[in-house]
């Protein structure tokens, strides 16, 4: 309120917020989600290739324990994880039937992992932004299948690849190979 003799202040006009796009900006969010995932995928693929290429091929049947997979079979896990991602992004992921048997040629597995990576990048780039959260079936627990948003499943598979890569570095060390730097220096690849 104005005091006697003072002019009353003019009421402020309500400021209009800029109108939101009809899609709520989801296209730009989708682009950011894709870009972030592809950047992480590229970085982790490079490191996983370093680890796989450091493994002594003649030790591909090495297994640290009778219940463990051999190094060749564990390497095939990386191939399968990328195939799961690719099938999910293409709406072709079906559950059941188990995983195929790992090929007997270790180098062929490593080459397939690298080749499939480039194909996966193309599939992700071609996936429409509004399709990134479309649900796909995948395991949610022992003998349980539920729906996962595609992008969430892709991040889960990439995290699992990182997990198995850590496991693989133990195989690598035990098989007499040299462990490359991953997120920092290693005893075999110091940074100083």
Description:
By secondary structure, the chain is mainly alpha-helical. It has a domain at 76-95 and 102-177. The protein contains four helices and two strands, in the order H-H-H-E-E-H. It has helices at residues 26-54, 71-89, 106-126, 150-174; strands spanning 135-141, 144-149. It has a two-stranded antiparallel ribbon with strand order 1-2. Strand 1 and strand 2 (144-149) form a beta hairpin. The radius of gyration is 25 Å and the shape is globular. 23% of the residues are buried. The model is unreliable at 14-25 (pLDDT under 50).
Which of globular, elongated, flat, extended, rod-shaped describes the shape? globular
Q: Which range does the strand content fall in? A: 5-15%
Structural class: mainly alpha
Which regions contain 5 or more consecutive residues with pLDDT less than 50?
14-25
* Integer average pLDDT: 87
Distance between the termini: 71 Å
Task: Return Rg in Å.
Answer: 25 Å
Return the string of H and E elements. HHHEEH
Strand element count: 2
Q: So how many helices?
A: 4
Helix content: 40-55%
Sequence of strands across the biggest β-sheet: 1-2
Largest sheet: 2 strands, antiparallel
